[in-house]
Specification:
single chain; 481 residues; mainly alpha; 3 domains; 3-stranded antiparallel beta sheet; 15 helices; disordered N terminus
């Protein structure tokens, strides 16, 4: 009866790792991975532009104009420099870029999982599809915008979105299928631990920059509020602009906390120096200081504490202090590379006016961040080092279980052997006691003159016997006479 029963249908949308779908399904998955992020990103940019147009006071809403403007907006979200009426716009918002990178990474991870990819090599078609689609779409948008008020270099529009999509796709595929074999073979556990600690250190430094920026904005809230205009549309546009550029401000605050600082046109803000100048009337910049403060160097305790935290995290990485310091150096390199990326993306050209350019000293900031991680981290890892034994492999665990079973079996045999030995000793003791008794009886018989055990006292029997025999020869009464 069980054979005649219909089996329940199983879902085929996500076959899981190691299960390859059919060829048509594979093509559908790759097409969805290629065009899904493009459609989603373009729609998000168009929605934001439509919202700005609807809330602006003196703007005329046009659906065609919004759709056409969404193309350059998509390029700006992928960090492609634009030319607005002949003026360069290279300082682009980081928040849409982070969203685009996260979308591409998630799409790549999901596509690799649906295709049943078990390694990075098997997921290469997903990587090629997402990267190629972003690069081609950027080129098409740049070519289509030629002759308009907002243009972009076609080569840059082809390369930059492709690179961002490739980096995001690699991260997503590595999360789903593991890193490439070439990378995995060259990453020992100590270096991998240093990479993770470096990512943690970079996140802590970014958090420190965000805290400093938040406190500065809260302290200068009156100035921030005065920047807003009474009209709702203009205020909403300024607020939205500040939100989009919020990661850029956090990156600048990070550079300030570590020491090098940042500049906006003629304005130069550093830990040990300050040069004032006019700034754009944006609420995001309302917390900028008007003069240098003597207590600013006290903020250097934040990156120093971050380096100490990295060293404390790696104090059990290895028993050799030199190896622990090597792991700290790997973490410092990760932090330095992260500062280079954030500093490069957060700044750029801002027209040809007094606020051009906005920059972070990338080279100095990366070197300083590396030192903040390596120097305190090496000190803590060297003197507070503890050896943490590595986790045994699964084979060793199985061997240990087998040894435990063998030990239990040997323990049972040993207990039985001990019982037998005690019984044998008890029997030997009994035999020894009987032998002592026999020896004692033999000695007693020897003292009494007995040749064999059980014989009578010497002379008594013989005398009685002899007398009897003698008495047998003598007639009764002769002895009396």
């Amino acid at each position: 009866m069980d054979l005649l029963t219909d089996a329940p249908e199983e879902p085929v949308s996500d076959p899981g790792p190691g299960v390859a779908p059919s060829r048509p399904a594979r093509v559908r998955v790759l097409l969805a991975a290629a065009f899904g992020p493009l459609v989603t990103g373009y729609t998000a940019v168009a929605t934001v532009l439509a919202l700005i147009s609807l809330t602006a006071g003196r703007a005329v809403f046009s659906d065609t104009g919004v759709l056409l403007a969404a193309g350059p907006g998509w390029l700006a979200a992928h960090q492609v420099r634009l030319d607005v009426v002949g003026h360069p716009l290279g300082m682009l918002p980081l928040l849409p870029t982070l969203g685009a990178v996260a979308l591409a990474a998630r799409t790549a991870a999901g596509a690799a999982r649906r295709l049943g990819c078990r390694s990075f090599r098997e997921a290469l078609p997903v990587l090629v599809a997402i990267t190629g689609a972003h690069a081609v779409f950027g080129l098409v948008v740049a070519l289509g915008a030629q002759g308009s008020s907002v243009t972009a270099n076609p080569v840059t529009a082809f390369v930059v979105p492709g690179l961002l999509a490739a980096a995001a796709s690699c991260a997503g595929v590595a999360r789903s299928c593991g890193p490439p074999d070439v990378v995995a073979e060259r990453l020992d556990p100590l270096a991998l631990r240093g990479l993770r600690t470096g990512a943690l250190g970079l996140a802590v430094l970014v958090a420190c920059g965000a805290v400093v920026f938040t406190v500065a904005t809260a302290v200068s809230w009156k100035t921030v509020a005065d920047v807003y205009e009474p009209g709702f549309g203009t205020s909403f546009g300024l607020f939205l602009l500040s939100v989009l550029y919020l990661p850029n401000a956090v990156a600048a605050a990070l550079s300030f906390v570590t020491g090098p600082g940042f500049s906006i046109g003629a304005l130069d803000v550093g830990m040990f120096g300050y040069r004032g100048a006019a700034v754009p009337g944006v609420p995001l910049l309302g917390g900028l200081p008007e003069h240098h403060a003597a207590w600013w160097p006290a903020l250097l305790v934040l990156p120093a504490a971050t380096g100490a935290l990295a060293g404390w995290t790696l104090r059990k990485a290895d028993a050799d202090p030199g190896q622990r310091i090597r792991a700290v150096a790997v973490a410092g390199a990760v932090v330095a590379l992260g500062c280079v990326v954030l500093g490069t993306l957060s700044g750029g050209r801002l027209g040809d006016g007094p606020f051009d350019p906005v920059s972070v000293p990338v080279g100095v900031a990366s070197v300083v961040a590396f030192c903040w991680i390596v120097i305190p981290g090496s000190f803590v890892a060297f003197f507070a080092g503890e050896h943490e034994p590595p986790a045994p492999p699964p084979e060793a665990l199985e061997d240990n279980e087998a040894f435990q079973d063998a030990d239990e079996f040997d323990a049972e045999e040993a207990s039985e052997a001990v019982e037998e030995l005690e019984a044998a000793q008890a029997s030997e003791e009994d035999e020894g006691i009987s032998a002592e008794d026999a020896e004692f009886e033999a000695e007693a018989d020897a003292e009494l003159g007995l040749e064999e055990p059980g014989e009578g006292v010497p002379g008594t029997g013989d005398a009685v016997t002899g007398g009897t025999e003698t008495c047998g020869d003598v007639e009764p009464g002769e002895g009396d006479r």
